[in-house]
Structure formats: C-alpha cells, structure tokens
Amino acid sequence: MAQPHWAAAQLAGVEKMTRSVAVLGGGVGGLAAAHYLCRLGQPSRVVVVEASHRLGGWVSSTTYPDQVVFEHGPRTLRVTGNAGMNTLALAEDLGLADQVRGISSSHPSARNRMLMTLMMQVGGKLHKLPNSLKALFTKKPPFSKPLVASAVRDLMASKVINEDESLFSFVNRRFGPEVAKYAIDAMSRGIFAGNARELSVKSFARRLHDVEQKHGSVLLGLLKDRKNAAKTDSNLETRELVKRAKREKWSVWSVAGGLENFVKALEKNILENNVDIWKNVPVKRIVRNGEKLVLQTDKKDLEVDQVISCLPSNIMSSVIQPLSPKLSTLLSSIPYVTVGIVNLEYPGHLIEEPGFGYLVPSSEPNRVLGVIYDTCTFPQGDRTILTVMMGGYWFKEYFGNNPSHESLLDVAVSEVQQSLKIKIKPKRHHVEILRDCISQYVVGHSEVVCSARKLITDLKLPLALVGSSYDGVGVNDVIMSAKNAAFMENIFRGNYMFICYNLASLNPDIVRVRGVLLGEEFCVCRLSFDVMTNRRIGCCSPAIMTSIGGPNCSP
User: Fold this and answer.
1) N or C: which end of the chain has fewer CB within 10 A?
2) From its record, what is one biological process in GO terms (predicted)?
3) CATH code that applies to domain 4-55+262-334+443-548
4) What is the pTM of this model?
C-alpha cells in the first residue's frame, strides 16, 4: 500500500462552532499546541494555564550581562526525521531563520562523541565512539573486538518473540554485552538519565524491536524493511530552513542567545493571536460538567470544550483523579528521575580534543552521567563552558533527597579536574536540581500509554494527552505531539476536510463523516470520533490517532 499523504483545508460553507480549548502546561509542548491551534483555525478561545511564573518548562537559558549563555536543559535539536524537520519549519514560521545556528555533521561536536571508562589500568581515560566505516573494523578500547563483530553476532542470533523487553537485554542478545554495557547503557544515561536495564526497547527503539519480530536479524531486517521506514513529509522538505539544513548537512541546531529564545518567540506568537496565558495558576483538579470539562484552580474555575494536557503524567495524575481514579493510577505508574545540572565557565580554550562531550556508563563508579562541551559546539569567545549532568535514575542513591548546591558543584569540579585535567577553578558556575524532569519509558510503557488513551476514549472525555510523558522525551517529539493534538482538535470541530492521497495514483479516496472528509482506504483503524459528540464512528490517520489518544493506539 502506498504511503498516504495527509492534507487539511477548511471546508467552504461550514459554520464554525463557538469552542474553547485549555492547554495545560506552558512548556514548549503547551506553547506549540496553542500555536498550532491558532494556525489551523483558532477556536473562539485558547487558554494556556501554567503553574509556575515562567514559560518553557525544562527549556531554560541564563544570559549574563557579558552575553555568556548557560543552558540548563535542552540546548540543541536534531534535524533528522519528520519531527526534526517540523521543528525547523516552526522556527521559520516564528521568524527565527536568521537566528538559527546549525552544526554540520562533519563538525567535531557531531563526530567526536566519547564514552568514559574509569576502570582502565592506567586510570580514567576517554575513548572516542567509532565515527567512520573504517573505525568499525578496528579494535579500540573500551571494546575488546572491532564493532563489526557485533554486526556479525546480530546476523547469527536467533529471534526471540516477545511484546517488549529492556533496551539492555535486547542489545545484549543481538549485538553482545560490550555494546550493551558501554554504548547503549551510556546513551540511555545521556538521553533519559535512565537505566538501560529497565528502559523499554519498544518505546526507545520501536523499529528495531519490530524488525526483529518480523525478520530476526535487526540489520538484515532494516535492509529488507526499508519501504516500511517512516517516509519524509514532502511538504516539510520544501521549507527554506529545512532545505538549508540539508544543504549545509546540519547534525543539530540551536538559536542564537540560547534555546529559550525559541520559547520566547512562541510566546510572542500566541499572544499576537489572542491566546490567553495564565501564569502562577496550578490546576488542582478537573471535573466534568455535561460534555465540557471544568478546570478548578485556587483563583478561578475555567469551563472549556476541550483540554490538551501537556502536563507531566505524575502531575496530571493528581489533577485527573476526581474524574477518573483508574486513569490517575495509569498515569502515576510512569516513573520520573531527577537530574543535577552544573554549568561551569573557565577562561581560555581548555578542551584538548574538541567534541560534543562524553557519557559515563553505569558500570563505572561515578556519580556523573556525562559532560557536555558547550563551547565546542557553539563558541562563546575565549572561554570554555561545560555542563555536568549527574544523578538521574541514581540521584537519591548518590546524593540523598536534598543535596546542597555546593555538594553538586564539588562533584562537578572534581569530575572536570580528573577527567579533563582542568585544574583551575571555574570563573562562573550555576547549579540546578531538575526534580522529576525526565519520564522513564520502562518496559511496558507503550501499553500503559495505550491503556490511558483508550480509557479517555471509552469515557468520552474531550481530553488529549501530549508531551514527553508519552510520545518521546525530545523537544522535537513533544512539538510534533502537540501539533497532532491541535490538528485533531480542528478535525473534531468539523472545520476541515481530511484527505488522504494515494501517492501512486494521486487520486483521493474520500468518505464524508459529519462534515469531515476522511481517506478511508489508508486507515488501519476504522474508528474515529463524531465531530459533534466525540463518539467513535469513522476513521483517521493511525499515526495521528496514536499520538492524541484515538482508538488506533494498540501497542
């Protein structure tokens, strides 16, 4: 079956319904959801409700009077995939094209990613990850064999039929213990601040899991199954910033002055589109009033037709409890970890071998997850700026419940002294403890998310779950999740037609459902929602329905 292309256009002569939408959470996901609601056809009212005094969530930058920037959360965004291209397109829409700073794939920060092992005979030592085909055939520590041997192992390993397993177990079976112990373990700590022995391969690397179930060998399966790989969105590929990124071969990108400027541009955009933003207003609970939902806060209540929740699942769990204890229990089962972040600034250029930084496998006796070489990626004059990440899954074990900022600073400075041989004291520093900042996609995560969204459907709740608790922890994933939810909110209102084109024939196969046109031929799931009542009746894009909680979210 040919890959569908989805397109939306306003229906002529359809009367728009008066409708209000509340977006819970003013992080990048919530702001993106509000932006897309406005872009796709704004409801009569959109309200973003944020519990804290600031917007952006974990995207946070500090700019000092001398224009030095410290990043305390995400700092670069990847280009690859539809989600990556979509964020670039959003940056272009926000007028940030001239402020975007790209890093090519040949840049040292993209090529030189290192693992750290402290168990070498001569003490602590940094080792480069292979970054070329030639390197795969060369034995380099900490690996005892060339990595090509791991590929041969995958070709020989038998298939194991299962619904899910840990990422560590999967890689250990197929590629060997060293790849699991050093590369995958360290990568899991760098991305999730998590334990690879508990993280779900189905959620973390779904395609690898699926090709093994279908073909056995992962590598051969990827070659055979190329036609089923995610197809790029041709509309996104035409965007100028996306074309520039491909032309210049970007690996990652950011925004001049810090990634928080991306958040500020989003805030400016939605305010210009008459979105209400409530800050310092925690939502205490959600209750039902007929077909509407009522947000109860300490200041005032807000009754709306639709809620897009971008809250972390552990917070949403308590908010939704009066409405559905069962849904609350499901959401509360998703664990979180706390990460300590220490930014350090030193005078001069002190990194002997430029790169992105290094990660520390959990097998090493080190409280640090990794160190990022910030000024190797984006120089800031004659200075070296580093970010030391620590704790994560092991935070309480390493630091207790309430460590002082001074104790984290001491650990960070000691790490830099021992590993990078930087003996001078930092000129400037900043310490943050990001509590419950990263959700953990443990084994069975996809089933939990699917069950939660199915329950929302069964209860006929006008509610969408969006954000890093469900569909990917990266900024790109969160923004795409928000876009899908906003898109479906417009579909539900009956203001758009939904057409699926068969790219092979370019002939639309269209079915009308209560004012919405849906391309039925390409729908795996034949259940959708009545535009007026949210009852399941029609069909919809499987990818979008999975993202926003439709019935096609079977794991």
Assistant:
1) N
2) protoporphyrinogen IX biosynthetic process
3) 3.50.50.60
4) 0.84
